[in-house]
Specification:
The longest helix has 37 residues, at 221-257. The protein has a two-stranded antiparallel ribbon. It is an all-alpha fold. It has helices spanning 8-38, 42-70, 73-92, 102-134, 144-155, 157-176, 185-194, 199-211, 221-257, 287-311, 317-325, 350-371, 378-400, 406-412, 424-451, 457-473, 475-484, 487-507, 509-516; strands at residues 271-273, 279-281, 333-335, 339-341. The chain starts with 7 loop residues before the first helix and ends with a helix.
């Protein structure tokens, strides 16, 4: 698989697996944790989620600037890994639930999220710049796109297991404390403690409280609410703690291979020996060419904002949909009686799983087209990916027709399993979104490393992630729409966003292809 690629690619991929592991734990459980821990509604949880994901990618620009200024790319990456581990530690420490001081404990959680985001900013873009330099060698240059696709595939292996482990830890902790998992109970417990529970929701809460108690019925519903929330969220805290272990493994792998990696700081004027034996410097890129390349990069950055606004809904509105509208009983797996894997978070394993299994297929298709001289350019692949993403949300739109408003579901205290949709709706959507991702994310990184002027490699990778940040900052709009308009109409907004991205890329295609060549 890595046969015709630089030797450092595998080590860099392994180093990045810890970051992906933590990323997918966050993707799977962050919004659900914020609601079950602090009693936040979907819109407020969505705002914190979007600011966090904005920060992860926006701070990559800061990380690129720091590395470009200090020329210490390798050390910057190493510090980033340490900071991410510290951030996960801050969130992993169990605190009381329900929280005795909402402002204090929510601030501490947000501090942990910021530390993770800052560490990620130092790490992510600079590691991508390091991988890009591996392909500046003429021996590997033609394999750049496939190399970044392999890098992207391999780092997702750890991400497959992150949601499974998070759910397993949470449900295991529930079980040893005498409870079983139910997706509707955390919200019902908060409503009961807040005195806002009434009607059908109150009746459902009483029924579920008895059903989930392994040691007999819940005589005191207030005591039950306090205990269930405490156990439920302590399980979440421990799940965040698993990410620390993954970061430590990444740190060890990176440190062992640090000296073997290329250094982007050296990608400047390289000494060459001419025919008479004198040393000359490699020709510096013409300022007008630098300007054209930067124009092309920023044009692509602007377009992908709309794609990421839609794609990263997988940790927000798509997770809400899994929790409230999807029949999770069809996704239940009992592991030898020790723990039951059940929960909306499990759907987040499908995206990295599909990345791992579909990347070889996509590479094979591109390789076949390359052999025939018909392989699409990187900008065209990105445009195709945006169209595929639009198709994914068309599927969600059709599958959500006829579902009740989210406000109606809240008033009922949750839907019965028979009224929920099949898990295959979300699985199919994640399959299509993953294909779109493989056309955009690794190839976008490759496009940036190919087009960016040598002196701006780190900062341009940071800008690519900065564009992702702006798309992520808009994510909360999806949460607001989800709570206030029909579910199918929410997905239509994302169809429109992806289509705008696709047609804009197609409009610029000839210009971008000329710059790339």
């Amino acid at each position: 698989m890595f046969k015709n690629h630089p030797k450092g690619l595998l080590a860099a991929s392994l180093s990045n697996m810890g970051e992906r592991f933590g990323f997918y734990i966050m993707m799977a459980i962050l919004t659900l944790f914020l609601m079950s821990k602090f009693g936040l509604d979907k819109s407020n949880a969505g705002i914190i989620y979007s600011v966090f994901y904005f920060s992860i990618y926006a701070l990559a620009l800061v990380g690129g600037l720091i590395a470009d200024k200090t020329k210490k790319y390798k050390s910057t990456i190493q510090v980033g890994i340490v900071l991410m581990a510290v951030g996960y530690l801050l969130i992993a420490i169990p605190t009381p639930t329900p929280v005795p001081n909402l402002g204090l404990y929510l601030t501490l959680t947000c501090l942990g999220l910021f530390v993770i985001a800052f560490g990620n900013g130092l790490f992510k873009g600079n590691l991508q710049a390091l991988v890009g330099q591996m392909y500046d060698n003429e021996e590997y240059g033609k394999m750049r796109d496939s190399g970044f696709s392999l890098f992207y595939m391999f780092i997702n292996i750890g991400a497959i297991f992150a949601p499974l482990i998070a759910v397993g830890v949470r449900n295991w902790w529930l079980k040893i404390n005498g409870f079983v998992y139910n997706p509707d109970l955390p919200a019902l417990c908060h409503q009961h403690l807040g005195g806002t529970l009434s009607g059908d929701a109150a009746e459902r809460y009483t029924t579920l409280a008895s059903e989930v108690s392994l040691n007999g019925g819940a005589a005191d519903l207030t005591a039950f609410a306090n205990e269930y929330l405490g156990v439920f969220n302590t399980g979440f805290h421990y799940a965040f703690g698993v990410a620390i272990v993954a970061m430590l493994i990444s740190f060890i792998i990176y440190s062992i291979n640090k000296k073997r990696f290329p250094d982007p700081a050296l990608k400047k004027a390289v000494a060459k020996v001419d025919s008479v034996g004198t040393q000359t410097e490699e020709k510096v890129m013409d300022p007008s060419e630098v300007k054209q390349r930067l124009y092309a990069l920023f044009a692509v950055f602007a377009v992908v904002i709309f794609f990421w606004f839609s794609f990263h809904q997988n940790g927000l509105t798509l997770t809400y949909f899994a929790n409230e509208y999807t029949d999770l009983s069809k996704m239940k797996l009992d592991l030898f009686g020790l723990v039951t894997l059940e929960g909306a978070e499990l759907f987040q394993s499908f995206n990295p799983l599909f990345v791992v299994f579909l990347t070889p297929v996509v590479l094979a298709v591109f390789g076949w087209l390359r052999a025939k001289g018909k392989e699409p350019s990187a900008p065209k692949k990105i445009a195709i990916g945006m169209g595929i993403a639009a198709l994914a949300y068309v599927v969600m739109t059709i599958g959500s027709l006829g579902l009740p408003l989210n406000s109606e579901v809240k008033a009922m205290g949750g839907l019965a399993d028979a009224a929920r949709v099949t898990p295959f709706l979300l699985i199919g959507t994640y399959l299509i979104l993953t294909i779109a991702e493989l056309f955009i994310s690794p190839l976008g990184i490759s496009f940036v490393s190919k087009v960016a002027p040598p002196q701006y490699q780190g900062i341009m990778q940071g800008c690519w992630l900065g564009a992702t940040a702006l798309g992520n900052q808009l994510l909360f709009i999806g949460a607001i729409l989800y709570e206030n308009i029909p579910i199918w109409a929410t997905w239509v907004v994302f169809v429109a966003a992806c289509c705008v991205s696709m047609f804009t890329m197609l409009f610029m295609l000839k210009w971008l292809e000329r710059i790339t060549k």
